[in-house]
Design goal:
The structure is a homodimer. The first copy, chain A, has 19 helices and 27 strands.
């Protein structure tokens, strides 16, 4: 018997919605606010909206599904959301690649299971007020009270003590102290909650999370662009700016901290929390972002042999860098591995659960620099490769960041090109995953040779001034004044990027004495890593052709790692252990580098 | 046999000069750059230039000396510098009261004997440079070197580590580290000396000293006005400003630190030292100056029951308050005793050598607030009295600070008035010691009654609009357009000030159950305390009439104490011991206060 109204539970995003029986899963997801990729507009011809039912009754398989889904997918029960209609309460599991980019990025909002063990814990005290007969200083009076309960060892910094007189008088001589070991980092009114700030300082993007240190719950999160972009698009140009201007480094630090303070304000407002309740922070970033944030010099990062000033984990007062949190809040940053493998990579490895990994595992975070780690038989090798900003849409003629209107998914079948834009908006450009799909599609269609030259006949292929271009969306289609197209230079940029990444992978494998097929788990982290299409990445040769179930796209694992390090201090020892054990591989030192790279430049 | 050329050694200022035989000691001192008081212009009629020969041959006593020196002075060998001529190499001891004010203040330049044991010591290391085969971070590389010499425990703050990359590369990978316990506070080129900064933050004046931490020697010293004066003359008006303006406290702190940074620049320039070599600082000041400097709130200092926010000794990074010294330099401040007995009083007691005093000793530092300590039979009582700014020349009609042209010494004999101005400049006003002498002289001459009313007949006493005024220097005498005179209101200001001080002394004595005559040692500290005339202070009843040898004028003992605390860390434990043992006496709580005060208001 079919129900009139069915409950649809969408995993792992954790949304539920009631819909009339017969509604397609695609429509149900849309009603629940979960946007699935539907290149074909729900006609069952693109296969992009695949998902896996976990329980409940659905309409039978359609012919479209039988044709679009692979035998593997069919045998494991995959369906197309646009085809399957709900006939009862159902629970479905949506793989990340079926979500649109912004939806996929929401994955980072998922709670990470952790052993809650924060650096800062609360202690409530009541202090007698002064009188003409008791003229002890406020701090002495509090210390004496603490000594009475066996806490004479507690330290107060001047900044923390400075808040004591007003707090005592405003809260009736009752306090909640935030203790970090034997250091008092904040003096709060009684009962006030303790929160922590986790920040991922990307070269391009900032992500910040407010975490309740008494529950481990993420109370609010926010993203923003790194305002340092105004002073240089990538790490090298930031270093050049810092070195070339007398106040360059201070300017970059000030702009960053200004933006972080604004983000903290928004986070606190959203969670209904005061800044003085933010008693601890964890920040991660690549080595250059780490140094620019902490005020360490970057000159030696820009000169051979490119060494970090400081690699070990650091702790410093938030006030020291101008971060406006609780008076005595400390910022912890995990260790950097090398000049171009930073604290964010360590956080990513922890966030992806690789702290004590035993399987042969490759993990990478694709960005302007791509950091790669290979774990094999107790060894941990890491390297960095200069993959450039092409996957962030830069250096691509019609490229753009992953924002509404960006073509994020492309499918070529015969003369037909299907595109999906972020937010379903009219197309305005191509983001990283879109150009990746395009190149992969052109390769699959035999329209690209190994060197990246466009060839063959296609209604969308045009030659203009001797340059071949493939039109994804014509001016007529988008209703704008210009075509959105991909040319040889764009394809070459992708070649350079994918070759850099594949070279790093191959050199690590060679150093470990294994081949790609030995990789048991292949972890792809970061925003682009999350919304790229694995098939496309394999097709262009960026990733080795492993069985697909060995791949795992883990979203912003660096941000997740930062939250882990914030809520669970034993993870900080794990970070140290990771950084201590790692063998850093300098690709420039590798005798075989050029051979591997030249080979990787070609398309398979 | 007389020598043609004689060497004159002047103690304790430590100057020496060669003069022809027959030169007067007054002229010899002048040639040596030591200015003695000579009210009579060297005619042997004022007795102000008395000093005590220690060894060597002088001309015989003159009749002038027999008439001006007391029998006690004569029996202990005192001479008048203007009368005694050198007949061979001589060594003379100059009592502070015979020096002019600026000369007397130079006493603070005297070296204090101390056990050299600074908080910061040097360590030289050489570090291997990085290469493609050795990509360790700079700090890791240094740490590994230190571990090799058994110093793996050393800590580096971020600020200190930030200077490492440039320093390593500029100084050929050789360094001199400044160690404070296991904390590295500065990274210097090899062989560079370590210096410390001692600062006395007075409500009115600042004094700063640069001390060589490897010799204990004071390398340079400088004085300046406290720029906070622009925001209020005394402590109460500063607190009012801090509380009444949103950025009030920050403004006061910023102005002060700005001036201190300027002074440090001058000190460093004078000593040929870089700021980064100033690796430790000690600052002292009253509780309000302490709180405004450190960024502690002062609101509760201005509201009954007037308690300090923090009384214990504090240590904090110089950078935290904006003080521009070595990257990791720490500022130490000794404990405050109470809301109105601050860290400067603790430093004064140490500077006067009272850390472990066993004699019954009274020590006071006269200022707008006068802090008084009484040591008796193992007890240490302390209080603060609001003596006001009259002794700094404020609230006195023709008053001025002790600057060139200020009348600093006055002597009435019959109808004649002798005055001495600072620097021998034409008189422009009266400073604290001058008005004190004037009041004492009028009392001695019987021209003042107990209530402070001017009476009697004197060519310099004039009645104008019903007000009696005593003319010290007439317009004709000074060649200016106005008389410099003292009136009843001025005399009343001095009455209020001396009564406050005497009341504090008497209440401490009563609390200890002793009387003034039990005081074995009476220590007078501070600038005014150093250049006041003890006879005058006793005559007006500000000080008890003790045998004069029990008095000791110790100059800026707070500054001396700050230098002690800088060069000899065991003194910091002595400061804690002093502050722990002290019994603070709140005069406002004393039942007998008003009776004692009313009695003290009258002149003896």
């Amino acid at each position: 018997v079919s129900k009139a109204t069915c409950i649809v539970i969408l995993q792992p995003v954790g949304r539920r919605v009631e819909v009339p029986a017969g509604t397609s899963l695609l429509d149900a997801a849309r009603l629940a606010g979960v946007e699935l990729v539907a290149l074909c507009g729900g006609e069952g011809t693109c296969g992009a909206c695949r998902l896996r039912p976990v329980e409940g009754r659905l309409s039978p398989l359609t012919r479209a599904e039988e044709s679009e889904l692979t035998p593997g997918d069919l045998s494991t029960g995959y369906r197309l959301a646009c085809q399957a209609q709900v006939l009862g309460d159902v629970r479905v599991d949506i793989p990340p690649e079926s979500l649109t980019a912004p939806q996929r990025l929401q994955l980072e909002g998922l709670e990470i299971p952790l052993e809650l063990d924060p650096a800062v814990i609360p202690l409530e005290v009541e202090v007698p007020p002064p009188s003409l007969a008791d003229l002890r200083a406020d701090l002495t009076r509090l210390r004496d009270t603490l000594a009475g309960i066996g806490r004479a060892e507690l330290h107060f910094s001047l900044e923390t003590a400075a808040s004591l007189p007003a707090r005592l008088r405003a809260s009736g001589w009752r306090l909640r102290l935030a203790l970090r070991g034997d250091q008092v980092v904040a003096i709060l009114p009684p009962g006030r909650g303790l929160f922590g700030l986790a920040v991922d300082i990307g070269t391009t993007k900032l992500a910040a999370y407010l975490v309740d240190l008494e529950t481990g719950r993420t109370a609010a999160k926010i993203g923003a662009m790194n305002p340092q972009i105004a002073y240089g698009e990538d790490v090298i140009s930031r270093i050049t700016f810092a070195n070339g201007h007398s106040d360059g480094a201070q300017t970059l630090q000030a702009r960053l901290v200004e933006e972080l303070n604004r983000m903290v304000g928004d986070l606190c407002a959203e969670a209904g929390v005061g800044r003085e309740q933010v008693v601890e922070a964890v920040a991660v970033g690549n080595t250059a972002m780490h140094h620019l944030f902490t005020g360490l010099p970057v000159r030696q990062l820009g000169e051979s042999p490119y060494v970090a000033a400081v690699a070990e984990a650091v702790e410093f007062p938030a006030r020291q860098v101008g971060l406006d949190l609780a008076a005595g809040a400390i910022v912890y940053m995990p260790p950097n591995i090398a000049g171009y493998v930073g604290a964010d990579h360590v956080a990513m490895l922890l966030g992806a659960g690789l702290g004590g990994v035993s399987q042969t595992t490759l993990a990478l975070d694709i960005g302007t620099n791509t950091e790669i780690s290979l774990f094999h038989q107790g060894r941990h090798l890491a390297c960095s490769c200069a993959s450039g900003p092409a996957f962030e849409g830069a250096h691509i003629k019609d490229g753009m960041r992953a924002a509404p209107g960006a073509i994020e998914r492309v499918r070529l079948s015969g003369d037909v090109v299907q595109v999906h834009t972020i937010g379903g908006q009219p197309a305005v450009g191509i983001c990283g995953s879109g150009i990746l799909d395009t190149v992969a599609g052109l390769l699959k269609a035999g329209m690209l040779d190994g060197r990246g030259v466009l060839r063959g006949m296609h209604p969308r292929l045009q030659i203009k001034a001797g340059q071949a271009e493939f039109i994804l969306v014509s001016a007529a289609e988008s209703g704008t004044h210009r075509d959105i197209k991909v040319g040889r230079k764009d394809i070459n940029e992708i070649q350079l990027a994918k070759a850099a990444i594949r070279t790093g992978i191959e050199i690590l494998l060679a150093d470990a004495g294994i081949s790609a097929s030995d990789i048991q788990s292949f972890i792809v982290a970061g925003a682009f890593g999350t919304y790229l299409d694995l098939e496309s990445a394999v097709r262009i040769g960026m990733f080795p052709d492993l069985p697909r179930e060995r791949f795992r796209q883990v979203g912003n694992a660096a941000g997740g790692g930062a939250r882990l390090l914030l809520a669970s201090t034993p993870q900080r020892a794990a970070a140290d252990a990771l950084a201590r054990r790692v063998e850093y591989v300098e690709l420039a030192n590798d005798a075989g580098f050029m051979d591997v790279y030249v080979k990787a430049l070609a398309f398979p």
